[in-house]
Amino acid sequence: MKKLINDPRRVVEEAVAGFEAAHGDLVTVSHDPIYIARKNAPRQGKVALVSGGGSGHEPLHGGFVGFGMLDAAVPGPVFTSPTPDPILAATKAVDGGAGVLHIVKNYTGDVLNFETAADLASADGIDVQTVIVDDDVAVKDSLYTAGRRGVAGTVLVEKIAGAAAERGDDLAAVAAIATRVNSVTRSMGVALTPCVVPHAGEPSFTLADDEIEIGIGIHGEPGRERIKIEPADAIVDRILAPIVDDLPFASGDRVLLFVNGLGGTPQVELYIVFRRAAEALAERGITVSRTLVGNFVTSLEMQGMSITVMKLDDELKELWDAPVETAALRWGR
Amino acid sequence: MKKLINDPRRVVEEAVAGFEAAHGDLVTVSHDPIYIARKNAPRQGKVALVSGGGSGHEPLHGGFVGFGMLDAAVPGPVFTSPTPDPILAATKAVDGGAGVLHIVKNYTGDVLNFETAADLASADGIDVQTVIVDDDVAVKDSLYTAGRRGVAGTVLVEKIAGAAAERGDDLAAVAAIATRVNSVTRSMGVALTPCVVPHAGEPSFTLADDEIEIGIGIHGEPGRERIKIEPADAIVDRILAPIVDDLPFASGDRVLLFVNGLGGTPQVELYIVFRRAAEALAERGITVSRTLVGNFVTSLEMQGMSITVMKLDDELKELWDAPVETAALRWGR
């Protein structure tokens, strides 16, 4: 295992300290318990958004803290849920009296710990609602969860719900928007290589030199099938079909197409993937109106990618276009 | 070799087509010869900036085409200079009558081909000036060049010269600013793993499981030494010292600190590096006033990173902060 780390047990603490040093204009950091909050939180009268989960998926979630997106992010250990304590502390720290929305990827540990934190916050008089993200069409009932997993679609939920909170929507309305984004978003991924969790020191799975895993989870959980590597266009077609068929997306739909790198994939490959995905949607009469390409929900150094498609309407498009100012996503302000 | 590609000979063409499909709001693409131009170029009366070089370093350079940065980028084959033809075509396409600045990383092929294109453009009546970027302190006279190599500092030259052109500076002034940025910028990198050029199919060098290459070039050219892997903080100290000593940076300086991922490095590791680099600069009395962290000048899927330090003055800081709107760098507009 070759990594740019000091102590495998201090990876998250040191990375968060570096994040604070780099982005002190956008965030403030609590080191015990660990969470990343928006600078000058809480904002009185604004619904606050809190997300979090195991580390190793950066820039998710800390990279999305700031104007127009999250008010706080709670990073757990690598690929391990944060405990209720830091989630509760973050929730209290950013509540501005208008309530807090928890955005939770559908993994059993995350769901339970956010639920406990929400219960404790409610007992303290904070109004908390929760939206569970489960956009991954690859498998039901995976290694770490019951039901579908939450993957790259989480970025779209956080961006759009963040914009709704910023324009002044109340907690019920922000939660409804977040739920709506999740309901029109579908994703699926593919891995070319595994990744190594620092404290484990070894890959959590292995792939032969000519094998890829279709439907990979963002912690390396098994997907649908393991196949011999194919040309990029064939791989795209193989994972786009179940995405489109699931909602289903149909001719005449306008969508946001998001090609997400899993951490170790060269950018040229992400654009080769984007090219075919856009073309394949066009062949089905689906119009790509908004786009996102890059490493946003990663699995450490894993090579591979995921494709996410979100069905747009005028309101979702307007909220997507609204200004955002975070370390990893920034425009229009 | 496992890659998300179709035909190794069509990697650049297909990636550029994907880039066009994803970022048609920012750029227009010429496919024969291949170059990426800013939407609605040329801008009458504005100095135009053109850069380029071998592909495989994305988002450099295409990701930096847009408002406040480049007017055109010319991607060559992977790790191979573009020929004069597309450079000349791009230069003609974006000239708005105020002249064109060529920003060229110091590799022999790039320097010669940009020089030929500049001569041909001049013969056509276009005023062209050239700035050579050579920020890498690792080695002199490397595999592909005489003198120092141009690496991640190129992003800073392109951003700041782009802002100067956008505010209306004339060609001589924009060239002077670009030269000034290069003169106060120093970089050095380290590789943990090699990368595989698609049409070669094999790594251009090998590293043992416990080895790293200090002073690596962005095409995998040899650096200063090959050592056993060390804790991240020791590696940072090892490459930051020659950077600081070279200019030299001194107590009281305000700097921009840029930690650049080489493509395959998890973001947590980049922030662990940033943490120590900022701390080590502070120990020397050097103040980090501006920051940049991410994959900006890459070597395909190579794991590793580079550190770049630029000495700031009020004007450079103002130009750095000025609005920019490109696929890979965007703020303030």
What does this structure look like?
The first copy, chain A, has 333 residues and is an alpha/beta fold. Helices cover 32% and strands 24% of the residues of chain A. A six-stranded mixed β-sheet of chain A has the order 1-2-4-3-5-6, sandwiched between helices. In chain A, strands 9-8-7-12-10-11 form a six-stranded mixed β-sheet. In chain A, strands 13-14 form a two-stranded antiparallel ribbon. In chain A, helix 2 (84-94) packs across helix 3 and helix 6 packs across helix 7 (267-283).
Properties at a glance:
alpha/beta, 2 domains, homodimer, 24% strand, Rossmann fold, Hypothetical Protein Tm841, Chain: A,domain 3, 333 residues, 6-stranded mixed sheet
How would you summarize this macromolecular structure in one to three sentences?
Chains A, B: Residues 7-331 form the DhaK domain. The structure is a homodimer of 333-residue chains. Chain A has 333 residues and is an alpha/beta fold.
Uncertain runs of chain A are none
Give me the oligomer status: homodimer
| CATH class term of the largest domain in chain A | Alpha Beta
Radius of gyration of chain A equals 19 Å
Structure classification of chain A: alpha/beta
Q: How many domain units of chain A?
A: 2
Give the overall shape of chain A: globular
Largest sheet of chain A: 6 strands, mixed
Termini gap of chain A: 41 Å
Number of strands of chain A: 14
